[in-house]
Structure prediction request, 658 residues.
Amino acid sequence: MQLAIEADNLTKRFGRFTAVDQVTFDVKQGEIFGLLGPNGAGKTTIIRMLCTLLLPSDGTARVAGLDVVKQADDVRRMIGVVTEKLIMYDRLTPVENLKVFGKLYNVPNDVLKQRSEDLLRLVDLWEWRDHKVGEFSSGMRQRMNVVRALLHEPKILFLDEPTIGLDPTTAHNIRHFVQKLNDGGITILLTTHYMDEADQLSDRIAIIDKGQIVAVDTPKNLKTKVGSKATLEDVFIKLTGEKMRDAPEKRRFIPWHPHGRGGGHF
Amino acid sequence: MRNPRQLLYHALVIAWKDLTEFRRSRIALAFSIIFPVMIIAMFGYMFPSTGMSVNNVAVGIVVEDTSGQNATLAVSMIRSAFANSSSFILVNVSTQSDAKAKIMSGEIKGAVVIPENFTASLLNNTRAQIIIITDPSNPALSSAITQAFSGVIGAVSDYFASQIIAGGIHADPQFVLQPVSASPITVVPGGGSYFDYIAPGFIALTVMMSGLTGLGVALAREREIGTLDGFLMCPISRVSIILGKTLSQTVRNLIQGAITITLAVLLFNVHIRGDIILIVFILVLGTLSFLGLGILATAVAREQESAQFILGLLQFPMMFLSGVLFPVEQMPMPLQVVSKFLPLTYAVNALRKVMILGVGIEGIVFELIVLVILCGITVFAGIPLFDRATRK
Prediction:
């Protein structure tokens, strides 16, 4: 099977801090691949490198067979990205928002018009087409965020915590929509903190901790390795530890802490 | 290499997005109108402070009278009065029209002319005149030149008066009391007010500072809230992003410039002698020369707040050191040197020459070249820095 994403020893350093440390994995075409990890594990940094938003410090990555550094523009045409932060302009209507991004992807005007309508209808936002996005609820905004990423018909979709902060019904609808997109042939790389979501959607899961991949397998195999009645949450805790993490993406290096072991990252 | 048409098309899409957002933000719209109104109203009612010292101001000396000793004597008295002065540097100029041309180009700030009939007038027992030519685009400096040289001409007059009395010459008592008088004129008709002087400065300041902070803060804001990622993930050039933001900012700045100029003309009788197209051209070029600085600040600062802080640091020295409020010549020498590195200095000079003196494009070539060079340096350094900063 052809590979949609290949990461080979992918590394990202911010000064003295290594956020992603020689990560190697691949995502097959048509797969939903879950990337799980505690806060600050390096999930978003990996996605940003694969989406050409960050230059890797070391290693290589190919998306849709294209090098993310040398063929960045071609990669951008092939991918859609739903980031944690919503990419849309509050003072514009949904149609205007889509018009801006559609034109930047060189989608022809007539196609853009039709596709905007189809996508907005698909996520039940067509009735709201003349309202400014600033008036939308968080669920509507997240639906818009997904629609924006699909406008140029990408082959690979990156979803960075797409259901964070949403009510159960909206989250359910988004998950359903993601599954539908995958059924249509789109490869999806998903990060999430919701274990049920990862379990339900992902064909395979990689668990990342402290910038390194600690396990990659199907949800079923991962659970079996821990115990017969184990949940994905059990797997996650077993592999990443019970200690709470509250680290942002760019962690500070603390050389010494009076109550700690002296040295480490927060 | 990207297709330039595509590059411009993407820039226009981004500019359209920015301007639509701007149009729909009532607060941004209101403040962009209130800001120039407030600035122009505030300074329109201000008057110049009295008393002023200047440094290294070049003043021309024209001796048209070559017929007698009296002219030579007057010139040597004027020269010796300023021999040890750091305020004025006296420069020989051949003719009165040459002096006027040099004032228009900014080479000298004023001139003193000993007219052809100077000696003849004194010999005929009629009052002789020494002409002081000043630049109305700079009333504060004009006033300083007129004041200083009138004082010296008064001393010249006193000397000739003492000679007349000692020689027992019978003449009109008024002539005996003041045989020589100062005759101040300006290089173009009509005197300038202080507001005439500062109006071009404030127009340049309002427009270009908005460009500097507007672009920097807009980019930093999009970066902070995450929407910049949306552009960065599109298959478009970073140049399109910068160019698009620049276009929208330039349109906004020109609206502000138009408000400021209209108010200056209607409320405070500022006279515009030059070509309005040339004024717009200077404002656009000035805005562009500031954009690189805005881009550089954004490349360095990750958050909007930091960008604002850096831009503030650039803004304040420029406001005071670029000759917006008072002549550069009034500042100590080290600060005069600093002013030569600030784009606002050249934009203000060019605008002042066009608005007040009615100078054409040929008279501001130097300023335009400097603005183009500054624009090129900062933009060419800024775009790769911005690119690196957004991907590092």
In short: The CA atoms of residues 195 and 233 of chain A lie 6 Å apart. The two ends of chain A are 40 Å apart (CA to CA). Residues 168-183 of chain A form the longest helix (16 residues). Confidence is low (pLDDT under 50) at residues 248-266 of chain A.
